[in-house]
Amino acid sequence: MLDTNHETCCNVVHEDAVNDCVEQLSDSVVERLSETFKVLADPTRIRILYNLSKRELCVCDLAEILGMTQSAVSHQLRYLKALRLVKSRREGNTVYYRHDDAHTMGLLQMAIDHATHIGAERGNIE
User: Which GO terms fall under molecular function for this chain's record (predicted)?
Assistant: First the structure.
């Protein structure tokens, strides 16, 4: 029995649609995008970047805020620093971190706005 409600792909190529989409992102841009979204896919890194968007913080402050060990926070900060998303400065024995990529911070803020909007639509605002 044939299911008439199931959508199937047609056998006709729509040249106007294909032509509109001929220009593609370069592999290097796609790779960088993938790396950016991988960074933002980790809850700890999201929390670190969010807090660094508010102000410059040291590892011990971030560890206290996040309820994590300084070692775990330092590990994430090294990763973020290697990707040039945060930068650091030393003041005596203390190293302070701040965000270093306005584009990623803008993307993070848009994602927060989106998550808040979706939560509001579903009735579970926090």
Answer: DNA binding; DNA-binding transcription factor activity
**pLDDT < 50 regions, the chain:** none
Domain count, the chain: 1
| Global pTM exceeds 0.90 | no
3-state helix, strand, coil in the chain (%, to 5): 60, 10, 30
Residue range(s) defining the domain that contains residue 69 = 28-121
CATH assignment of the domain containing 33: 1.10.10.10
The single residue listed with the structure tokens 């270093």 is 100
Beta bridge mates, 120:
none
pLDDT tens readout for residues 77-107: 999 999 999 999 999 999 999 999 899 999 9
Work out the burial of residue 87: count CB atoms within 10 Å of its CB; fewer than 13 is exposed, 13-18 middle, 19 or more buried: middle
Residue 31 burial by Cβ neighbours in a 10 Å radius (0-12, 13-18, 19+) = exposed
Q: Is 23 a member of any domain? A: no
